[in-house]
């Protein structure tokens, strides 16, 4: 079978590999869609400390079961499934307290285990053990189901930031994650959503799809001034930074209103993780700053339901479909911000 394998930074190859066989507690799937995200581009360029190469990449996975390992019950060949990306251990104190996204023993598909940029893939027993293999609801395509993983992460972020009815929400970053944040904020009852990006082309592309109430191109207009203007000086209830930018995080603190919540959804580059925070703003305005680290198996199930019910449509966000052989072209589209969701169809 064909796979997309990471060998070293800058060295990702489409090559042949033997078809894997499922061990006890595992299933083998025929991958139908594995979507790409910014992380794939980062791995391609810089590698990742959790990847011991060579490793098949890809972690936004939907496919069809073709073979069942020993001791697996409840599944059969032909079942359509979505696979979680982050695998909590299910046993530690954090997991037992329901905080699976911060499990210190977390492992990931495409990092510790072979990923989904492949014709076939074995779903590790650890995934099934934490209920991380999800049935794709009828009416949801494989391509849409592959977007459940990033949507699950977005859902985790908005739960932590308590996005809800009547909120004035600002999303900084108009890539696929930013688009999902806009759609989910609407589904959760936000009264107004403003989308901000430095890149005018990408902002226009995203805005045409997700129709925010206002857009701000941060290269043309000061985004803090713009948000204060839109909110009549009050500031936003929630600001979500879906961009790897310390400047965006600092701006978020200046455009958020009283008792506002700020989600540092996107992480910062490893060598520049420090920003300036006016602690008195946080103190007097009773601000909440939250992070977001992936998603739990339950978030993935909820995301599939949000897609199935139509609350968060994702089909139109899939702008590019490429065969496995063109994975590097797909990474290139993602790195240029030329598409929204770019999916691989092995
Ligand atoms: Zn991802
Ligand atoms: Zn754990």
UniProtKB/TrEMBL annotation:
Listed SUPFAM superfamilies: GroES-like (SSF50129), NAD(P)-binding Rossmann-fold domains (SSF51735)
Coiled-coil regions listed: none
Occurrences of domain Enoyl reductase (ER) (ranges): 7-344
Domain of life: Bacteria
Cofactor: Zn(2+)
InterPro entries hit by this protein: ADH-like_C (IPR013149), ADH-like_N (IPR013154), ADH_Zn_CS (IPR002328), ER (IPR020843), GroES-like_sf (IPR011032), NAD(P)-bd_dom_sf (IPR036291), Zn_alcohol_dh (IPR050129)
Entry keywords, A to Z: Metal-binding, Oxidoreductase, Zinc
Record PANTHER family: L-THREONINE 3-DEHYDROGENASE
Record family assignment: Belongs to the zinc-containing alcohol dehydrogenase family.
UniProt name for this protein: Alcohol dehydrogenase catalytic domain-containing protein
The organism of origin for this protein: Micromonospora thermarum
